[in-house]
Amino acid sequence: MYALKNSTLYCFLFCSCCLLLWACENDIKQVQALGSKKIGVDTIIGAEAYLSQDAKVKAKLTAPLMLRTFTDTVKTEFPKTLHVVFFNDSLKAESQVYAKYGRYLENDSKVFLRDSVIVFNVKGDTLKTEELYWDRTKQLFYTDKHVTILRAGDLPLYGTGLTAKQDFTNYHITNPTGFISVADSTLP
Fold this sequence. Notes:
The protein is of the alpha+beta class and 188 residues long. The chain has two helices and eleven strands.
């Protein structure tokens, strides 16, 4: 009787193992997916962020959608517009930026803006272009695309290529076109 119980037990264990091995068949695509690298994406709806430097608030960013992707380079995208207000040391707005699309590469400290990019300052100067880069460390805007600068009470400036301070108080158009008004006292 003892031998019969052992053989029944061994038969049960053997059948159970066979059943488990048969039931544990894996789909090859699922197995391959386990080894693949997944990209992590944080999604923020209604983003509002502040940029500080040396313990001072320098800018406020608002965007309806912000996607932050974690790969070799951390990338933040703003696919549905963004608006940035830059502040001086007294927390007064000195310039603003608007674009329909933006991308920030954290390792490079550079922002790429495109599609209806508008920059304006408190003096009323306005820059319009289709693409613009912002170097956060140098606090400079630059582009090699067509630019239009509207100045308060003056003729508009046109050109291709621009470098400008972040507060847009000083700018240089690489290839200017159009007319420039000159005060009468400077003419011979």
